[in-house]
Specification:
Elements lengths: L4 H31 L8 H15 L23 H9 L4 H30 L38 H30 L4 H16 L2 E5 L3 E6 L6 E5 H15 L10 H18 L10 H11 L22 H4 L16 E5 L5 H17 L4 E8 L5 H7 L4 E7 L5 E3 L10 E3 L4 E7 L1 H6 L3 E2 L1 H11 L15 H9 L6 E2 L1 H9 L5 H7 L6 H4 L19 E4 L3
Length: about 550
């Protein structure tokens, strides 16, 4: 994959605008619920967004919404989502009022998607007479720079600014942007006769926007900070292990001879910022939880699993995976959305977001793939133990089911969905977890669920630590499973259930980790002197000055 600097700049500017629109939509839902006298249940927005995007993905968009439908985050279908209505009713809202709130939210989302599509298109090709959007006092956010940020809160030294000084800075910036926009328009008109006006105007627009969205990266002892030098309040923390993991994933995806696969350090940091901003804007860290590396080692050893059907650059264990946001994640190993993939063979792990509609669609897609496969195919499916959910019934009755077991919530844990910015990687499971193995006939022969003890011990030894998270964790793999298989070599056979249960138990957090989750400061910012998970709230108190690893000049 070739990474173009201009495309990276456009992606960054668009992502900042998208995050602003998402925050506005969240605010719309919260304000509507408060006005109705109730609070929406947790994850209402996340479930609504996931259901809407799933419906758009599985149903061809109408011609009137085809442009807006291309956005990965913002729903463009203004239809009322029955699931969201049910969530609001569960929170205490009357059904009719809930339907009205959801309808208004859908219309606002469709408008936001169209606005973002227009803004993104304007970055690529502007008519010479069109003023620069977002620079000449245009809309799209509440901030003076058109990004939706509320302005500059720090000066170059990182010290706080008074309100009066902040207003002066905003005023000077607004005047400068208007002057630059007028100059860009003149340059576009003057250069049109020479054939290069549109290109010059596009370049000028990108330069002006990028100047307002310069990514600044600072390294601390325990984490790396990503922020915008323009002074926006978005500051994202990434631990060093995940920072190196993203670098490795990019090198593997983009090829080339450089350390990042030929991608410049500046572009690498811009792409990382886009990923961090994207997954922060959609939140729902509970939907981003993943199996621990020890469990993946067992799956690799037993079934040669090398692909995750639902993952992200931040929580993936395999270097190849399907993502909900393939356009943003493609530089970090994502190969598309799971529901768009049509593999003819292979071994996969599927741990979807715990949303009923998504899980039902996943089961239907897996069944279709298994029926149409021309080679051996296997799926290890991880779902919550919701016995009354339609997806559970479909999995239990599947003709492809080769194995199943239920793990009690107290007997296992997962990698935290916010592991990239937490001190502790693991968290206890909220629900019992069902593990299903679905295989076609050829898959059963190639990857048997039950092995001899000798074969199991050999497979587990070979599968130990073979994943892309080596920079994140020391991956003390299924040593207990290997030892147990060797010790029980007299036994005739062993099911994958035995080592997989043990591996899933390795992700149970310790008592110290549990206590740390109960307090606010549990991220790396707390260790480095800044409280909170998403942004540093206190001056850095670590020894020495903060080291900038990319000034991005």
């Amino acid at each position: 994959m070739v990474v173009d600097g201009a495309d990276v700049d456009a992606d960054l500017v668009t992502e900042v605008r998208r995050a602003s629109l998402v925050r506005s939509l969240r605010g719309t839902l919260s304000a509507s619920c408060r006005a109705a006298g109730f609070v929406a249940p947790t994850y209402t927005w996340e479930r609504w967004q996931s259901r809407c995007k799933l419906r758009e993905l599985l149903s061809p968009p109408s011609s009137s919404s085809s442009v807006a439908a291309s956005d990965e985050v913002l729903p463009c279908d203004a239809r009322v989502d029955d699931g969201c209505v049910a969530d609001l009713v569960r929170g205490g809202c009357e059904p009719a009022e809930a339907a009205a709130i959801v309808a208004a939210l859908g219309r606002a989302a469709a408008d936001a998607a169209r606005e973002l599509a227009d803004f993104s298109a304007s970055l690529l090709s502007l008519p010479p007479s069109t003023p620069t959007p977002g620079l000449a006092g245009g809309g799209g956010g509440s901030g003076s720079d058109g990004t939706g940020e509320k302005g500059c809160d720090t000066d170059e030294s990182g010290e706080g600014l008074s309100n009066r000084r902040r207003k002066r800075i905003k005023l000077r910036r607004r005047r400068a942007m208007r002057t630059a926009a007028a100059a860009a328009t003149r340059d576009g008109v003057d250069g049109l006769a020479g054939g290069g006006g549109r290109k010059r105007q596009r370049t000028s627009l990108l330069e002006q926007e990028v100047a307002l969205h310069t990514v600044q990266v600072r390294s601390h002892r325990h984490s790396v900070d990503f922020s915008l030098r323009s002074g926006g309040k978005r500051l994202f923390k990434l631990n060093h292990g995940h920072y190196e993991k993203l670098r490795m994933l990019m090198a593997a995806s983009c090829g080339g001879g450089g350390g990042d696969g030929g991608v410049s350090e500046s572009d690498f940091h811009k792409l990382v910022y886009c990923v961090l901003s994207r997954y922060h804007s959609v939140l729902g860290h509970g939907f981003q939880m993943a199996l621990g590396e020890q469990a993946f080692d067992v799956l690799r050893a037993w079934f040669d699993v090398r692909f995750e059907c639902f993952a992200s650059p931040l929580n993936c264990t395999c270097s190849s995976y399907a993502s909900a946001f393939p356009l943003t994640d493609r530089c970090f190993g994502a190969v598309g959305n799971f529901f768009s993939l049509r593999p003819s063979s292979g071994s996969f792990e599927a741990n979807p977001p715990f949303i009923a509609e998504v899980m039902s669609a996943m089961v239907a897609h897996i069944h279709m793939l298994l029926r149409d496969a021309t080679g051996p195919m296997s799926f290890v499916v991880i779902v919550p133990g919701w016995l009354d959910d339609p997806s559970w019934a479909a999995l239990s009755a599947s003709s492809f089911k080769c194995a199943f077991f239920l793990v009690a919530a107290a007997d296992h844990g997962f990698c935290d969905g916010a592991q990239h910015q937490r001190q502790d990687r693991y968290r206890e499971s909220t629900y019992d977890t069902g593990v299903f193995v679905l295989q076609n006939r050829q898959g059963k022969m190639k990857w048997p669920v039950i092995r001899t003890a000798e074969s199991a011990a050999a497979a587990l030894a070979l599968g130990k630590g073979t994943h892309c998270n080596s920079s994140v964790s020391s991956a003390v793999c299924s040593d207990s499973g290997i030892a147990m298989a060797s010790r029980d070599s007299s036994a005739s056979d062993m099911s994958v259930e035995v080592p997989l249960r043990r591996a899933m138990a390795r992700a149970i957090p310790t008592e110290m980790m549990r206590l740390r989750r109960l307090r606010d400061g549990r991220g790396h910012g707390d260790l480095d002197g800044g409280g909170g998970v998403y942004r540093g709230k206190k001056a850095n108190k670590s020894s020495g000055k903060k080291r900038s690893i990319d000034d991005d000049d």
